[in-house]
Write a structure and sequence with these properties.
There is one protein chain. By secondary structure, this protein is mainly α. The protein folds into two domains: 47 residues, no CATH class; 37 residues. The protein is 81% helix and 0% strand. The protein has five helices and no strands. Helix 1 packs parallel to helix 3. The longest helix is centred in the C-terminal third of the chain and has 19 residues. The termini are far apart. The relative contact order is 0.08.
Length: 95
């Protein structure tokens, strides 16, 4: 097999991570470490990709979605938007 450059190796490692094939990703990191300086860089980058795999959280996505929908509704209906803003401010004051 032809020697792959660092970008191709990183793409393969990320593909494995995204496909949740962690064991293959770990094997790729071990193989990379054996390949010297470039392998160490690849292992570090693959580690970062693994850490970022499940971000953002579902909770964050749901909060963001609700906020964006609320803002879109406020922009399309300024009167209702003002009432919603006042309601949200009261809710935040109680917390």
């Amino acid at each position: 097999m032809a020697k792959q450059n660092l970008n191709e190796q990183l793409n393969e490692a990320i593909d494995a991570i995204l496909a949740r094939r962690e064991s293959k990703a770990r094997d790729s990191k071990k193989d990379a470490r054996a390949k010297g300086k470039a392998g160490v860089k690849l292992a570090a980058l693959a580690g970062i990709a693994t850490d970022l795999r499940d971000l953002p959280s579902d909770r964050f996505k749901n909060i963001l979605k609700a906020d964006l929908i609320r803002r879109a509704n406020m922009a399309s209906n300024p009167v209702a938007g003002k009432a919603e803003t006042q309601k949200q401010e009261k809710t935040n004051a109680v917390k």
